[in-house]
Amino acid sequence: MSIRLFRDFVCELTNLADQGSGEAEMLGAARPMLSDLLARDTWLPDEFARPNENFYQQYLLHCDLKQRFSIVSFVWGPGQETPIHDHTVWGLLGVLRGSEVSQRYEMNEGELHETGGLEILEAGAIDAVSPTIGDIHRVRNGRPNKPSVSIHLYGGNIGAISRHAFKGDGTVKDFTSGYSLETVPNLWTR
Ligand code: FE
């Protein structure tokens, strides 16, 4: 278990943000960094990988002090899925354990349409969302009988951002996701 791997990731992201990197630069530069983090699954404390039998969990792992980015572990129990939703900021979604299944959508003249087929992301795979590259999707656990864990990086404090959930008929509802725990990992523990 080495939280230092994660701390280094946070530090590199902070440097990128300090350089004034915009969405395209952040998405491009953060992808290989996230890929390295996913390849070394030794750093996520168990409390932040714990499924809940009723709901998928969104554990905040770190939020930049200036809220330029946040990192969240999503823990999916068997059968758990999100509503169809958007993000309103850029995001990188990487699978740490198990698999995640994603369906993308777009809104056209008030109607919601599926775009592309179901994408199955296995451990190590990374997907990207944003208002410029496609921001609406539904995500679920790709493992029928086991939890899956993914690490999501967003271009803002995602738990505090007002965004949208969609019903199949195109009905839109505002929502703010919050986080599943009031604590974050101690980045400074030995
Ligand atoms: Fe999402």
User: Sheet bearing the most strands, described?
Assistant: 5 strands, antiparallel
- Class from helix and strand fractions: alpha+beta
User: What is the total number of structural domains?
Assistant: 1
Residue runs with pLDDT of under 50 for 5 or more positions: none
Bound molecules: fe (iii) ion
Residues in β-strands, percent: 35-45%
N-C termini distance: 10 Å
CATH architecture tag: Sandwich
Count the E strands: 11
* Average pLDDT figure: 96
Q: Kindly state the percentage of residues in helix.
A: 10-25%
Computed CA radius of gyration, to the nearest angstrom: 16 Å
CATH level 1 class label = Mainly Beta
What is the overall shape? Answer: globular
List the secondary-structure elements in sequence, H or E. Answer: HHEEEEEEEEEEE
Q: Assembly state here?
A: single chain
What is the CATH T-level topology?
Answer: Jelly Rolls
Instruction: Give the neighbour order of strands across the main sheet.
Output: 1-2-9-4-7
